[in-house]
C-alpha cells in the first residue's frame, strides 16, 4: 500500500514558497532574519493558518512550560493543511500526548549531564567531545533529546562556560574530534561561529571538527555564500544535517546543501525514526535517495530517545530493523544509514543490524544475504608444512 504521506512523485524537489505567506515579497522570504522574525510561536499564529485538532490545541498550551513551539515559515509551508496526520506537522506542532510521561522516559535520556567535565561539554568517548554552543534552534522538534535545556523554557538552563571549555580542550590531548551542537550552532552569527572555530583550530591535537545542524532544513536561507566562505577556512570540517522526511528536501534545501558541498564540506544526515513520520520503508527509501541527490550521505538512523512525552512518536525497535532490511542490498550502499540506539542513561551509540550472521564456529560463518540465501564463509586454512617444503624445493632447484 503506498504511503499516504508521499506526494505522487516522492523524489521531486519542490519549492513551497510563499505558501501560507502569499503577501511576503521574495526578498523578505529569502532573508533569514525575516524567516526568524515571522516564526509561528503562539496558538494564535498557528490558528491563523491551520484548523487545529483538540489534541494539538491542548499540546500547544502545555508546550510553553516544556519545550517552546517555534516554526519557521519555510518549514511551516511544508505542512499539508488538509492532513491532520501530516508528517511535517507531527514533528513541530505539539500534541496533548506530549504532556504524559511514560514510565520508561527520562528528561536526560542519554545521560549527558553526568558526562560533563565542564558545563556544556559532554565528554563520553575518549577521543571526541560534544560541545553544546547554544540552546536555541530555528524551529523546535517535539522529540528533541535535549528538550530539558533547548528553547529556554524547560526545566534546566544551558550554562556555557566558554573559557573553561576551551581550556579543558587545550589540556586534554586525547580529544581529536569536536562536535559542535546545541541547540543549533548555525543559528549563531558568522562572527561568533568564526571565533569558536578559530579558537578550536588553534589547538594542535584537534584534527577534526563537526557541526550538527538542522538549519539547512528549517532555515536554508541561513546558508549564505558568506557563511560557506567562512566555514571552508576551517577544514577538515564536516556537517551533520537532520532531516526525517523526503518532503523536507525542497529546492531551497537542495541549493543550500549544494553551497555547503561546493565549499568542500562533507555532509552526513541524521534521522530519527518517528511514528507516523518516517516509519515505513517507502518513506525512508525516498528520503535516502533524495539525500544522495543533495550530496548528503545518510549517516545515522536513530531509534527515538526515551525523552519525556515522546511515546506517541516512538516506534518499536523491530520497525527500524525492518527498514534497514528493506534497504541493504536493495539500494546503493551509500544510501544506507547505520541504525543506532543511544544507550539509555549514557551508553553511547550502539549499532543495530538485521541478523545476517546465522551461525559461527571455529571453521566457518554461516551467512544469509538480502534475498535470504545462505552462504558459508570458511575460516582460512593453514598451509601444511610438507606442501610448503615441496614448493621451496621447486623454487630453489631451478634458480
Ligand atoms: C553522538 C555523539 C558523539 C559523536 O559520535 P559519532 O559516532 O562519532 O558520530 C560524540 N559525543 C557524544 C556525547 C555523542 O552523543
Ligand atoms: S534541531 Fe536538534 S537541538 Fe533543535 S529542537 Fe530539533 S532535535 Fe533538538
What does this structure look like?
The chain is an alpha/beta fold and 399 residues long. It has two domains: 1-354, TIM Barrel (Alpha-Beta Barrel), CATH 3.20.20; 358-399, no CATH class. The chain has helices spanning 26-29, 32-37, 43-49, 54-63, 73-76, 87-92, 162-170, 190-201, 215-218, 225-231, 251-262, 281-293, 317-327, 385-397, and strands at residues 121-125, 128-132, 177-181, 208-212, 237-242, 267-273, 296-303, 338-343, 348-352, 357-360, 364-368, 374-378. The strands form two sheets. It has a nine-stranded mixed sheet with strand order 1-2-3-4-5-6-7-8-9. It has a three-stranded antiparallel sheet with strand order 10-11-12, with no helix packed on it. The longest helix is centred in the C-terminal third of the chain and has 13 residues, at 281-293. It is globular. The chain starts with 25 loop residues before the first helix and ends with a helix. The mean pLDDT is 96. Bound molecules: pyridoxal-5'-phosphate and iron/sulfur cluster. Residues 122, 124-125, 128, 130, 179, 349 line the site of pyridoxal-5'-phosphate. The site of iron/sulfur cluster has 11 residues, from loops.
